[in-house]
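REQUEST FORM: STRUCTURE PREDICTION
Request ID: SP-0412
Submitted by: Lab K.M.
Chain count: 1
Length (residues): 261
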Amino acid sequence: MTSDPLFQHIEQMHGTRDWGRVLDAGTGSHSLRWICSLPTTGWTAVTIDTTRVQSTLKGIGGSLRETDAMVLGDWTDPALLQGERFDTVLVDYLIGAIDVFTPYFQNRILARLLPHVRDRIYVIGLEPFPSQTPSIAGQLLIKLAQMKSACRLLSGQRAFREFPAKWVERQLEQSGYKVEDTKHFPNVFRERYVRSQCSAVRRALKLLDDRNLAQALEENLQALETQLLDATKTNNGIRLSSDYVITASRVEAFPEDSKTT
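STATUS: Completed
RESULT:
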């Protein structure tokens, strides 16, 4: 069994069901490594990010069965995976990333996936950070998230936009699914997370045309990073927000699945 608590929960919810054919609707190395550990009959992993294809394949050792496929595509394209169905569908932080690549499609993605879902869909997401929190360390982490979004926008990129579990539940129900379970996992952010987020800010700063502004923001970031790293050590991590896993299934079966002979 995987050591990731979110994937552990999905395995528990899945129980004795066959995994069958699995669709990773917004793939990455982490989710695909987990899928490769399951007894599937095949998997299809979709990404819109051309830079992720090789790194994701490298992350799983590059070995694909004849029934496995890595697909570069955009869910706004009606021809993407047309006619293909999957026993299990994973939506792993995809909704929060949509605004970066295909803005304003968040409220349509679950309906777009419905024709491909034969049985179960699992949606993983992050509860949006609040604007304020009583924790000093938590407030510093919120400031870092705001700085990341601001720097992406200043550099001509779009920012990530997370949606709460309640919003996703409503979208699932409106799109033809029945929500069966929702579980939250409180987050404890540690040094690795802080460094990765600071690295993301610095990548955005490199794209700024105004180098004086970039330098000023870099100095601000350095001070913030030092405070956050100290806070992760002092508090044994920073507690803020939560991840969630929503388990849902189709309300109606496929017509051909319900035919009797």
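NOTES: The CA atoms of residues 24 and 134 lie 37 Å apart.
Reviewed by: T.R.
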